[in-house]
Amino acid sequence: MTRRPDAIRDAIEQGRTSLGIELGSTRIKAVLVGPDHAPIASGGHDWENRLVDGHWTYSLDAVWAGLQDCFAALVADVEQRYGVRPDTFGAIGVSAMMHGYLAFDGDELLVPFRTWRDTTTEAAAGRLTDLFGYNIPLRWSVAHHYQAMLDDEPHVPRTTYLTTLAGYVHWRLTGRKVLGVGDASGMFPVDPATGQYDAGMLAKLDDLVAARTPAEPGARLADLLPEILPAGADAGALTPEGAALLDPSGTLRPGLPLCPPEGDAGTGMVATNAVKPRTGNISAGTSIFAMVVLEGALRRHHPELDLVTTPAGDLVAMVHCNNGASELGAWSEVFRELSAAVGGPSDADTVFEALFRAALDGDPDGGGLLAYNHLSGEPIVGLSEGRPMIVRTPDSRLTLANLMRTQIYGVFATLSLGMRVLADEGVAIDTMYGHGGLFRTAGVAQRMLAAAIGAPVGVGQAAGEGGAWGMAVLGAYLRSGAGRSLGDYLAAEVFADAAVDVVVPDAADVAGFTTYIERYTAGLAAERAAVDALGSVTSPQENAG
Q1: Which of 397, 438, 480, 523 could connect to 284 by a Cys-Cys bridge, CB 3.0–4.6 Å?
Q2: Any idea of the CA torsion for 478, 483, 484, 485, to the nearest 10 degrees?
Q3: Cα angle vertex 100, ends 119, 211, to 5°?
Q4: How far apart are CA 331 and CA 343, in angstroms?
């Protein structure tokens, strides 16, 4: 298909498009792609989590208000560009931040949504890890559920269904209680041989629960979890009620197909063509995580690594850090305000790019500065809470360039510590692919990430579109991928002619980052002391709104 506006308009009117929607931590984004998988329109809605009664959460009202606003913005973009209002699509796919806890009794939400950002599940995660001999991170859904049991929360006996945010939205749109295998693998371990929840571990948990309290009807975890579907499977169709939820104007027609809902880790793999062994991707947003597709099982479990799957069900080692680019974004906003105050550019993108370009002139080791981006707890480095800090010695070189370089280093520092565990396991990586808004300024974050992980980093043209585009591609795979593996489909239909810029690690940057990470690791003692000294901190969002 050519990229002529009239050809695109025909595809929209004929429903030869795919819509991907992703509910990220700070932004809900929708991307519409044409038959050639290239984006043709987008929409967005900014939102933010709140700390309520000790749990990071979003209200379900905020979920639907955000989805409706995002969808309306997409429709407006289509109308502005092509003069037509879409009333159908070839497929829709929904993705969202993984893990967390949504517990229902029928249609009733029993406790407010608890997100991946919660670090209140340490006791449960530790016991389950020991029980399974398999790392269960704090943010996994099973850790939330078992912690609720340990805390004798009254909602537990009433629970009839557990799901993730993507699974919840898909359920409301289609009536189907299903989940893509990648997202499901962040609720409870999945056996790669079967593509289903690990039966042995389910049995161990049932025995543990039965020994603690008398078994109750519906208490078996297998009865509470969503049905697992691989990429390309039929996951239901948009119901009239679902269409009205997404588009209250009544224009959107029901009946169109939806692909299995996925997590943001899975859509990141798709968006970067990193679903085959020896490939991997790094997604940088509010959190930052690396996904490396494995050739085989690891020798032992590691607390720094999750084992999840691709949307096709292949085993993946995941290095997940709770804290990504939020602190960097806060500093960017400070400089935007300064620029506006002195009559300079006040748009965020211009300031962001200028700061990133300045970072290229910084000393390879950051000039002796250290930047800790921990707004919340960070299990990889043993932090139950976070205190963002900049630390320097009297002889450090405090310049704009060094400040910004260390802020970018700070985004990647904890990730690099987790990636070292994979290297020690002998895991081979040909190329890592970066995606997310952090990579929009060409050659900056990409270059520093290559130094941080000691591997080539590729960034494609769609890197800035992120997971919403990856979800749209999964919708297209539902429509036209029959008979081909997801990896083969991506290689032949989506990325065959894709331009990818690959940066190899620069020797001076590698040496500088090595010095930086040694100081950073030693300085974590100061970060822990700050947590102890400042005591519990109430978020300014606590009980807001």
Answers
A1: 438
A2: 80
A3: 80
A4: 19
